[in-house]
Every structure is written in C-alpha cells, then in structure tokens.
Amino acid sequence: MVRSRTSPPSPLRRALGRLLAVGLVLALGVGGGVAALFVWSFTAADQEVRFTARNPLPIPPLAASRVVEGRRVFALEMREGSHDFGRGAGPVPTYGVNGDHLGPTVRVRDGEEIGFQVTNRLPETSTLHWHGMELPAAMDGGPHQPVHPGETWRPAWRVGQPAATLWYHPHLHGSTAAHVYRGLAGMLLVDDGEDERRGLPREYGVDDVPVVVQDKSFRPGRLHDSPAFFSSGGFLGDEVVVNGMVAPYLEATTERVRLRVLNASNARVWNLGLADGDPVTVVGTDGGLLDRPVTVDRVPLSPGERVELLVTLEPGEQVMVDSAPYRVGSDALQQRWAGGDDAFDVLELRAAARLAPAPEAAVAPPRATPVEEAGPEPARVRRFELTTPLINGRRTDMGRVDEVVTVGEAEVWEVVNRDGAPHNFHVHGVQFRVTDVDGASPPPYLRGRKDTVLLPGGTTVRLLVRFEEHTDPETPYMFHCHLLQHEDQGMMGQLVVVAEGQQAAERIEHREH
Ligand code: C2O
Ligand code: CU
Ligand code: CU
C-alpha cells in the first residue's frame, strides 16, 4: 500500500536520508561484526588440548667437546633443516644447532675453562646467548655479539657458578622470537659432581631428563607463528611440543625421575603438575638447586624459566604431566587472551613394570649464595616499570647505557608490571633472589637462584641482585621481558657492570648487522 504525503521531500533531503540510513546500517553491521569477532575470539581463545601419547620423547644428544690447551671447546653450528614433529603430516622447515631442530645438550663443570665455536650456516645473522650464565659481558652472545652468515664466533670463559639447568638461544634484536620458534634452543647444564651425594637422579636421558616445552601452531608444510588478533603478549600456539615432538611419552625405568623443564615458548606460561593430582617435588629453579626440596601441586613457568622436578612413580603407572590454568592477567579479558585459561597435556610418564629403586632426595645447596651473604643493607634501589613495549617509558636503544651497576654491591630491584597482561623479567649475567611478590614473601619454589621471574598483570616483585665478578665498562648485559615478541619490540634495556669507581662508557658501540 502506498502512503500519500502532503509534499514530496526534496531530492537533496532524499539523498541525505538515504546516506543516513546506509551509514546507520553500516555502523550497526561493523559494530555487530566487531562485537561478534570479540565474542568469538574470547570464546575461541580458551583452549583445552589433550592427547593420547604416541611418540617416544626424543632426548637431545650430549654435545661433543674436545679439550684444547686445557679448555673444553664445543662446536655449535646453526643451520637450516626440516623436522618431523610427529604429527603424521611430514617434516616442516626448521632451524637447528648441529642438527635439524633444537640443539644438543651442553654439559660443563663448575670451575672449568670452556669455549665455543659458534658457526652460522643460516641465511641470516643470528647470535647464541648463554641464558643464566655468569660470564663476561663480551661472551654473553646477546645482540652485541652478532654472528653473520658464514662467520664463526669464539667466546671463552671459566665456569664459576653452582650446578644448574641453563639454556642457550639466539638473541639478535628483533629476530629472537622467530629464531627460537624455528628451533634454535638447547640445554646448558652446569655440573658440580655432587648429585650422587645429594641423592638426585643423574643418568642423562634415563632418570635425569631434559624437557624443552614449547607451544606451536602448524599449517600444511610449515610452522605458523602469527599472534592471535587480541593477544598483546605475542604468539600462543595450539599444540604442545616437547623436545621437538607432539604427544610424547617417556618410558621410566626408575622409581624417581628428574625432569629438567625449560619453558622455551614465545609467550606461553605453563602451570605444570600431574593430571592425577599427585604432588611433584621441586628441587631446582633457574640458577641452581633449592636449599631443600619443596612439594607442590603445581608450579608456574614463564618463558625462559627452568624448574627441576622430581616425580615418584609406581610400577606400571601412567601419569600425564600437564598444564592447568593459571592467573596471569588482572582481568577476565587479559587472562583469557594471555592464555591463562588454557589447559594442555604435556608429557606422559610411563613407568615400567619393575622400577629401579631411588634414594630419597636430600638436596643441599651447592654453596651458600652470595646474595644471602650480602646482608640486609642494599647499596641502592632501582625501579623498573613495565608497560608494553617499554621499560621505564623507553624502548631498547642499542647505544644507550640504561643502568650502571658496581660489581659486588647488593641492590634491590623493584620491578612493576603496570599492564593487565603478563610480563616477565630476565637479567643477563647474574642470578638473583626474589625477596617479595606484591609485598608478601614469595612461594618456596621462588626462593632459589633465579634469572627470570614471572609478573602476572599488575604484579610488583622485588629482587636482590648482585653481580659477583665480571666487569666491562664498554659492553652491556641485557635485561628484558622474556616474552619474546615483547623483547623484540623493545622491552629491553642495557646495563653495564663496572669496578668500584670505574666510569661506564657514555654510549655503547654497536656493530650494525
Ligand atoms: Cu634468554 Cu636475554 O635471554
Ligand atoms: Cu639471558
Ligand atoms: Cu612482556
């Protein structure tokens, strides 16, 4: 039916009206679309990934070494390769060290003179950084020691720190996330020969097992690493890969298994425990063994952190090491998009029908730690405010000296996460102590030697930091968020350690690559 009007609207008004209507429809459509995308991504971001274990856990080989003039030297070659992650979909292009994917486990002894020949056979510049090592800054393998394609870099130093589970990975500014994700990472173990006395499992790959945990995403024929739309923390994967294998199981032949777990993920925080609810025993953290074992239901592990777990098994038992939700964001949205609501199976432990008996673990610290000896009077307090992608309001500048620290002085570092999303904080060249988390004393598993500490959204931690030995007024160590995309975006600063009274360089000379 046609309604009559008193006077027809002018063509101009008609056009305006049509424009308004189209605009309204568009606005509703786009708004609705955004809302739908938002709801969808919030819902889809919540992952629960379980698997039936089907692949034996690969054990990275021990790196070969030769002794040259009293120095143990390891040759490490970064190269391209392709690797089959056990998904039944064939190999995908990867990077590896002395192989197609990941790298061999390097074992060194406290007190030993060591050296590396790091050769770059990649089509691009990279570096190898010795995460957790106390060593001269020029040997650190950070962004100031690039190794160009075809070059060999030869760092050397004397190991001087307690037994620990450290690791190595590239650290080229802007490329760290991509290089680690493609497979450049390996374990670096410091031994002190005391594990037998401590009653700790110590047979590599049998009851003393490296466990490199990463999340990945796959597309046909390749690894996929674009961060999700709303994720501010960078890439979160939808499959768990342990030592380069999905759906892995470990065949255990002893009553007690020591798992040296490394979180080599880009941004994922794992919250590790046993699916059957049995507790696990934490014996070590980033920089060494705890004063005594701590029994917990679960232990969170952010990118770059390590934890040494003891799991006690019954003959014939099968138990899943898994990851449960953990509070990393300060509100429901941040929590969800940072992966805090996710749950994953990680590694199945299959105990043999007969298990070799294990002694009770009676961990004693390898030596009193310097920070404890430092006494209650810190030389100074420094504050670090984290706001993506800045530290204290600044992005990385490879020429700038952000902090000058005097060797041997104990300092308090107060690190504040001003965001609602998680960060963590890693310092090169030192092992620190976490003295409080949001004003409370830290949980027992955080009381050992640490080089990386998790800061869920809104968290403040205080650290006792003391550089013990090495000084270099011209070469910096880095400190940064170890969520690799944040680090690459510039959440990284430079610190120079000087002798008492020594002047630090005004600017750092940086070899551009
Ligand atoms: Cu895992 Cu700057 O390092
Ligand atoms: Cu490091
Ligand atoms: Cu961060």
Overall description:
The structure is a single chain. The N and C termini lie far apart (75 Å). The chain has 6 helices and 34 strands. Among the domains are: 12-44; 370-498, Sandwich (Immunoglobulin-like). The strands form 6 sheets. Strands 1, 2, 16, 18, 21, 23 and 24 form a 7-stranded mixed sheet that branches. It has 513 residues and is mainly beta. The protein is globular, with a radius of gyration of 25 Å. β4 (71-83) and β5 form a beta hairpin. One copper (II) ion binds next to loops.
Text of the CATH class of the domain at 370-498: Mainly Beta
- Count of DSSP-assigned helices: 6
Approximately how much helix is present in the residues? 10-25%
Q: If you average the pLDDT, what whole number results?
A: 92
Structure summarized in a few sentences:
By secondary structure, the protein is mainly β.
Features:
6 helices; disordered N terminus; seven-stranded mixed sheet; binds copper (II) ion; 513 residues; binds CU-O-CU linkage; mainly beta; single chain; Immunoglobulin-like
Helix/strand layout:
Elements: H1 11-44, E1 48-49, E2 55-56, E3 65-68, E4 71-83, E5 92-97, E6 106-109, E7 113-120, E8 129-131, E9 152-153, E10 156-158, E11 164-169, H2 176-182, E12 186-191, H3 195-198, E13 208-219, E14 222-224, E15 239-242, E16 248-254, E17 256-263, E18 270-274, E19 280-285, E20 288-296, E21 298-301, E22 306-312, E23 318-323, H4 332-337, E24 343-356, H5 370-373, E25 380-387, E26 390-391, E27 403-406, E28 411-417, E29 423-427, E30 433-437, E31 452-455, E32 460-465, E33 477-480, H6 484-489, E34 492-498
